[in-house]
UniProtKB/TrEMBL annotation:
<dbReference type="Pfam" id="PF03702">
    <property type="entry name" value="AnmK"/>
</dbReference>
<keyword id="KW-0418">Kinase</keyword>
<protein>
    <submittedName>
        <fullName>Anhydro-N-acetylmuramic acid kinase</fullName>
        <ecNumber>2.7.1.170</ecNumber>
    </submittedName>
</protein>
<dbReference type="InterPro" id="IPR005338">
    <property type="entry name" value="Anhydro_N_Ac-Mur_kinase"/>
</dbReference>
<dbReference type="InterPro" id="IPR043129">
    <property type="entry name" value="ATPase_NBD"/>
</dbReference>
<keyword id="KW-0808">Transferase</keyword>
<dbReference type="GO" id="GO:0016301">
    <property type="term" value="F:kinase activity"/>
</dbReference>
Length: 352
């Protein structure tokens, strides 16, 4: 392949409902060796109405969910077009949208990320690639994690890449193949507990630091069946509702935050040790939780690398932009070794 540049926008909305991440990236391909430069990025906080709709969509009727799928697609298109205009973006090959996950049940062969890409196309008049997970689920995969293709081609200098988002997930090389899996719920729980104390998130882990660990609860959490399963494996909100929430409803919020932060650190450090990870790149909103990072460091000898603010906050949006570029070239953008699907494949619906 000749040296080529590609310009793409990645859109990402995580389960922690921090907002819509928009990342404009230049990708450089030098004889199939990829590099990137983040040119512009922004997070748009959701209004109370949007946050409520996205959080409660799992309970909507089918008609209301279909309506929300269209409405959210137009919302994504409007915000992306505003971003393009504000930043005077002239070079743009495509927009790549993750959408917002409502359902994720790979064992039942379905997953749903709302935000119709055709609506984004109508608002921006640009090629849009979306719905990256469904094909993998139909191929017998978990439909997650998907970012390992970016870890493999853009961040190969690290033994592993750990994302601390709504869920913590990791990708790493083993026996010459990139594997990846979810480790445990994270901000989807921590943020919800912080809300009960009047904050959107536990800044620096200060609430958790002030609480007391409930070791009986910690043991219950650590013994959950998911943690005994082998990768590939993934988590969704349904699992959290069924397995986690019944355990943590009655205790003091600071103590719950202390306990769940300890739980996350235990599970993450366990994976570092199990796979002999020497160095790891950590990104995602949880990277700013200094108490969590302290806890992880105390439990492992792994060298922890924390990158620039842009990479911390926009790595997922960056990689979904990259996945869109790969899809446009009909190159594999999902690794079966990471998701458990039948084979590597090029996934994503195209609205052009």
């Amino acid at each position: 392949m000749e040296n080529q540049n590609f310009y793409a926008i990645g859109l990402m909305s995580g389960t922690s409902l921090d907002g819509l991440d928009i990342c404009y990236v230049k990708f450089i391909n030098r004889n199939s060796d990829w590099d990137f430069e983040i040119l512009k990025c922004e997070t748009i906080a959701y209004s109370v109405d949007w946050e409520d709709d996205l959080k409660n969509a799992i309970h909507f009727s089918s008609e209301k969910l279909l309506e929300l799928n269209s409405e959210y697609g137009f919302y994504l298109g409007e915000k992306t077009q505003e971003f393009i205009s504000k930043n005077n973006i002239r070079e743009l090959d495509l927009i790549s949208s993750h959408g917002h996950t409502v359902f994720h049940q790979p064992k039942n062969k379905f997953t749903l990320q709302i935000g119709d890409g055709r609506a984004i196309k109508i608002k921006t008049n640009k090629t849009v690639i979306y719905d990256f997970r469904s094909q993998d689920v139909l191929l017998g995969g978990n439909g997650a994690p998907l970012v390992p293709i970016g870890d493999e081609l853009l961040f190969s200098e690290f033994d592993a890449c750990l994302n601390l988002g709504g869920f913590s997930n990791i990708s790493l090389k083993r026996d010459g193949k990139r594997i990846a899996f979810d480790i445990c719920p994270l901000n989807i729980i921590l943020n919800d507990l912080a809300l009960k104390l009047g904050k959107k998130y536990d800044e620096n882990g200060d609430f958790a630091r002030s609480g007391n660990i409930d070791y009986e609860l910690l043991n219950e959490l650590d013994q959950l069946e998911f943690y005994q399963e082998k990768a590939p494996k993934s988590l969704g909100i349904e699992w959290v509702n069924a397995q986690i929430l019944p355990l943590i409803n009655d205790q003091k919020s600071e103590d719950l935050l202390a306990t769940f932060t300890e739980h996350a650190a235990v599970q993450i450090a366990k994976i570092f040790e199990e796979f002999g990870i020497k160095n790891v790149l950590i990104t995602g909103g949880g990277t700013y939780n200094s108490y969590l990072i302290e806890k992880i460091k105390a439990k492992t000898k792994t060298d922890i690398h924390i990158p620039t603010k842009e990479t911390i906050e926009y790595k997922e949006a960056l990689i979904f932009a990259f996945m869109g570029v790969l899809r446009s070239l009909n190159l594999h953008n999902i690794l079966s070794s990471a998701t458990g699907s039948l084979h590597d494949h090029s996934s994503g619906l195209v609205a052009d």
